[in-house]
Amino acid sequence: MVTCHTLERGGRILECPECGSRMVSYNPCNQRGCPSCGKKNQLIWQAQAQKRLLQTSHNHIVFSPPEEWITKWFEEPADSINELLAIVSKAMKEYIAHIGLAMGYVLVFQSHGKGLCYKPHVHCILTAGGIDERKKWKTHNTVMTNYLETLLDGTWKVHTELHKDTPNRIVGYLGKAVHGLPIDIEHDVQEDREKKTVTIVDNHCGEDRISTLPVLVFLERYLNHIPPSHVVTIRYYGLYSNRHADDLKEIRSQIPSVGKLEHVEGILAICKKCDKPMSICFEFEEKEGRAYLKTIGYMNSSPKHGEIIHAA
C-alpha cells in the first residue's frame, strides 16, 4: 500500500481531448483496504450495482447474528464470512418460497459498527416485489421480520427499511464496505497528533456518528476489518443471479425506472478545467516516467497522483 499511486509503480499520462491539459496517473496497488484505491473501487462497484439492480423499490434488511459470532469471526474470518452468508441465504430462500414470488436479493457482509467496533453482520438488498408463475411483476413491499427471525432460530436480530423507487441509496451506503474499506480516509477521519487520537465521522441512516479512538486502536481495528484475500463479501441471488438475466430484461419492460444511473467504469479521470473525460496519452514504467518528468521540470521530485502537469 505504501507505494500505491506513486511513481515507483509506473503509470500513464492522461490528456484532455478538449483543452489539451495533461495529468499524471500512477498505477494502484489494488490491495483490499488500501485507502488510495478504495474510493475508485467503491464508485465502480456502485455504478455496476446500480446497472445490475432493478431501478424500483427495494427493502434494506440487516441481519445481526448472536454476539458469539464476534469471537468466531475474529479467530476465523474467512470461514465465518462464508458461513454467515450461507445462513442468511438459506433463510432468504425459505422466506421467498413462503411469499410465492421469484425475487432478487444481494447479500453484503460487513464486519464493523460505530467507531470501527467489531460487529459482523449481513446486509440484504431485496426487491420489493417479484414475478409470479406467469412471469408478471407483482409488488410486495412488506418484510415479515418476525418470520425471518423464526427461520434463524430466534437468535438473530432482523431490521428492515423500505427504500422507494430505487436501491441507489442502499448501494451508496454499502459501497464503502464492499472492498474492505470501512471508512473514507480522506473525508471521514481526522488525526490529532498532539493527543494521539483519531476521530471518525460515520454516517448512519443519514446521521453523523462521531467516535474518537487512540491511534493504535484505530490502526488495529482498521486492519482487522480488511477481509481475507479471495473471500467474496458480496453475492447475488434469485433474480439477480446470472441465470435470471433474461427474466430481468422482461421485468425491466414491465416496471418504470425512475433511478438515475451513473457510469464511471470506463472513465480514467475528469479534466479539472473543462470537466471532460481524459484519455491515455502514453504509459510508462518508473524509469521512463522519471526521465519524462525531468524534461518538463520535475528534477528532484515527482508530481502527486492526479496532479496537472500541463495546463492548456
- What is the assembly state of the chains in this entry? single chain
Q: What can be said about the biggest beta sheet?
A: 5 strands, antiparallel
N-C termini distance: 33 Å
In the predicted model, the low-confidence regions spanning at least 5 consecutive residues are none
Radius of gyration, in angstroms, nearest whole number: 22 Å
The topology string of helices and strands comes to: EEHEHHEEEEHEHHEEEHEHEHE
Mean of all residue-level pLDDT scores = 87
> Strand share of the residues?
25-35%
Descriptive overview:
This protein is of the alpha+beta class. The protein has a domain at about 185-215. It is built from nine helices and 14 strands. The protein has helices at about 35-50, 70-75, 75-100, 145-150, 170-180, 185-190, 215-225, 245-250, 285-295; strands at about 10-15, 20-25, 60-65, 105-110, 120-125, 130, 135-140, 155-165, 190, 195-205, 205-215, 235-240, 280-285, 310. Strands 8-3-5-4-12 form a five-stranded antiparallel sheet, with helices on both faces. Helix 1 (about 35-50) packs antiparallel against helix 5 and helix 2 packs across helix 3. The longest helix has 23 residues, at about 75-100.
Q: Which helices and strands, and how do they pair?
A:
Elements: E1 11-15, E2 22-26, H1 35-52, E3 58-64, H2 68-75, H3 77-99, E4 104-112, E5 118-127, E6 129-131, E7 137-139, H4 145-151, E8 157-163, H5 168-178, H6 185-188, E9 189-192, E10 197-204, E11 207-214, H7 215-224, E12 234-238, H8 245-252, E13 279-284, H9 286-295, E14 308-310
Antiparallel strand pairs: 1-2, 1-13, 2-14, 3-5, 3-8, 4-5, 4-12, 6-7, 9-10, 10-11
